Amino acid sequence: MKRLWEEFRIAGGFLTVFPVADDLSGDPERLGRSMAFWPAIGLLMGLGLVAMDQALTSLIPRAVVDSLLVLTMIAITGAIHLDGIADLSDGLARGKDREGVLRIMKESRVGAIGVISLVMVLLLKYVILHNVPVQLKTQVLIFMPMAGRWTQVLLAAFNNCIRSGTRAGGEFVDYVGKREFFIASATFAVATLVLFALQGLVVLLIFGLVGVLLLRYFQHRLGGVTGDVLGAGNEVMEIFALLLIHLLRHA
Hints:
The structure is a single chain. The protein has 251 residues and is mainly alpha-helical. The chain has one domain (26-249). It has 11 helices and no strands. The chain has helices spanning 2-15, 28-34, 38-56, 62-77, 80-94, 98-105, 112-130, 137-157, 178-196, 199-221, 227-249. The chain is globular, with a radius of gyration of 17 Å.
């Protein structure tokens, strides 16, 4: 139990700006094993967003609340995943082959495509979140960050690490396996079923299929993942999570 608690803390310390694991060693092996608890950290993030939403909704306009919710997620994570979407977008747009993509991703300069991607990601999150029906707001705020972090576990568990030299460039991916994926998936599945009841089965099926498609794409295009790829996957699938709930509402 002590080891599991430490892995949970390491997950929280890596995914957020909170100093919850400063006394623990975050070596690649322990960081990789901590991915078992990444969806659980996403769940806690979601609960925090729900509390914030409920506290502010009666005080300020909903549009302002939704803007603050998006900004809060950026502040909590230290924009770690947004950095990934910018770097990956630049690499995929300008790189002609795998080596070219990885080389561009390592550059410190953010290109025009990266900036546009950042703007569109934030804009889409805000617009979709703002249009979420009030009766679904709680479920969506919890599901979105949890789903994004489950995606990262999926990508890490079934991909190779690309030794590209990026910061947190996936050196921990080699230590993510079936155990981490099973624990993460169990957390994600149970929480989704609690949030959406029987419709949660449809949510899990569709989200899982899209996640596998994303996994196959990175395997084919890059031959594996880096930290930037994991971060980008989180952002893409958070947006898809928001869209999915909207689509199912009208089904």
